[in-house]
Amino acid sequence: MKYMQDEHAFLAKLLQRDTRACHQLVKEHHGRLVMVARTIVGESAEDVVQEGWLLAFRALPTFEGRSSLKTWLTRIVINAAYGRHRYEKIRLTASLDEVMDEGMPLAERFDKHGHWHDPLAHWQAETPEELLGRAELASILQKAMQTLPDSQRLVWLLRDQSGLEFKEIADTLNTSEANVRVLLHRARLKLLAVINDYEEGKPC
Q: Which of 122, 126, 160, 147 is CA-nearest to residue 204?
């Protein structure tokens, strides 16, 4: 987005309470933040995000730029969501030492940038995002996502829906990039199983 290309200049406008900049920030991130909050608080997501915006605008003078605004806002909303229900933060303790069914350590399936060396056969051809365009499957996938453990669902949403980098997700959730990759892989496998059952006509 042209207006947001220079985040430092954009931040300066936000600190000056520039109306256009504030509206642009909300327009750019609100929908994504609601999706993130919904994984934690369900129908209260809009209220949580509104609370998050209030907290964010109040805290803007303390923003040090150690992360992107996108990551910073996401962290605020996640904290607000857990605070709403007095949840404790998820402890992401998955280990890279676990071995997949093929006998290959999960860490070896990713390059240093976090990309698959050898992606799953159907993942590149049809991702859950693309398949959500199908009305019937959309409902099935939404239900399937609700059955994922909170940690897997949140990581999948932040990576595959919101487009955050592994480091951004790790920083947001106070965990390691390795654990993020493990959780993402598990979530993808479960969603792909649902997709495969759907395409084969099996009950989902």
A: 147
pLDDT of residue 50: 94
Query: Is 23 a member of any domain?
Result: yes
Q: What is the CATH number of the domain that holds 174?
A: 1.10.10.10
Q: Measured between alpha carbons, how far is residue 54 from residues 51, 73, 76, 144, 171 in Å?
A: 5, 11, 10, 32, 22
Q: Which of 1, 24, 14, 28 is nearest to 57 (CA)?
A: 14
Give 95-109 as a DSSP string: -TT-B-TTS-BGGGG
CA distance 204 to 179: 28
- Region 45-72: mean pLDDT is 90
For 93, the token pair is 């303790």
Contacts of 125 (CB under 8 A, 6+ apart): none
Q: Is the pLDDT assigned to residue 1 strictly greater than 70?
A: no
- Overall number of domains in the chain: 2
